[in-house]
Design a protein that fits this description.
The structure is a homotrimer. Chain A is an alpha+beta fold. Chain A contains 3 helices and 7 strands; from the N terminus they run αββββαβαββ. The first copy, chain A, has a single domain, classed as RutC-like (60s Ribosomal Protein L30, Chain: A), CATH 3.30.1330.40.
Chain lengths: ~160, ~160, ~160
């Protein structure tokens, strides 16, 4: 079975640099075998990717692209903390906040932009429990914010 | 002391069928002794129960009814994963998102629709830590989305 | 190295009384070595501190003050459950919901009001993973709601 790193290469995906916190918090915190990554909004070339509200300013495919990039930033934060994403046993939970125009109710479709790539990279252990909700606004005008928790393999003695 | 299953029967409540994911995620994920259930919106007869914004479209009692049914769907997801809700030691955390009209600030009252039944079923171990907030819109126009985490009894050796 | 309690005293901060639940939930729940505190809104003298939407009704400094007080209420809930905040090894995660005027996108600045004091009290182990998002309304018209999780030191045998 290919490793997550091998799957990334096969899919021609590369992880972005690890995110830098925009405030007084840590990019990721480990407690026991769980890594909790801080909420991510997508940056490309130092700029917020597709700023604004989904539907009014941002299309669903653009929001899915932002959700995927935010998810990759989260994986990069895990990699930065523990060395490699191949130590991830399971993606346990993903929470997706979608900055939404009034009346927009397809947040679950946007959230697939975060979770479908996880299944492609990690297989069924990449399929997380998920929360997807609309919000009126996000920090820095992000269209999507993604939080991810990863469970690590216990290291053999 | 009656079991959770016996309490359900005494209260004449039945759990709905386990929820089917509306996207690329798992209904529930277990990590160690914790089960993390994906955010639930209430369905009845295949339709969203009481769609819309609370206060403008949906009354508080209707929203509480949706919160209760979403909570029962979450318990059904736990049951589907581990066989019986009697293996639940503690409801650890419930997060309730309430699709809210502008100015509606009674989300905590709506959230009681999720958590009061848990205390009725599990006793004091059913009283969780809780988050309740308003949001402008939820997937599929749900009025309420409920996320639930359950800690399981350690199985004796 | 000073203890968290000594840091509190040095900074001339005192924790407020432990919060009373506004509904059917527990102020804090412990599972293994983690304490999950229920979402906190700031009260002062029995009244909601700075009610309303940030930007329209509440300034950023006022919202930061509310975030700090809500965080101190959360620490008070931990103290009430386990006796002292000196048993906290790590602040693992803080989730901040900011009741936001349309177009307000500085939720991360408000959230610093919650997390900067944690670093002052606990040092680097007080720097948590963080989620900060806007919402249209919170229970009781709170401007900010703060959820906090603390990992405890394992007690030596």
């Amino acid at each position: 079975m290919p490793t997550p790193t091998e799957n990334l290469a096969r899919l021609k995906w590369t992880l972005p640099p690890p995110p830098e916190p925009k405030g007084s918090y840590a990019p990721a915190v480990r407690a026991n075998h769980m890594v909790y990554v801080a909420g991510q909004g997508a940056f490309r070339g130092g700029e917020v990717l597709h700023p604004g509200l989904v539907e009014r300013d941002v299309s669903i495919p653009q929001a899915q692209e932002a959700a995927q990039l935010a998810t990759f930033q989260a994986l990069s934060a895990v990699q930065s903390l523990i060395g490699t994403i191949d130590r991830i046993e399971r993606i346990v939970r993903v929470q997706v906040f979608v900055a939404s125009s009034p009346g927009f109710t397809q947040q679950h479709v946007v959230a697939n932009g975060a979770t479908e790539p996880l299944v492609a990279i990690f297989g069924e252990p990449g399929r997380p429990s998920r929360v997807a909700v609309g919000v009126p606004a996000l920090p820095l005008n992000f269209p999507v914010e993604v939080e991810l928790w990863a469970q690590l393999w216990a290291v053999p003695g």
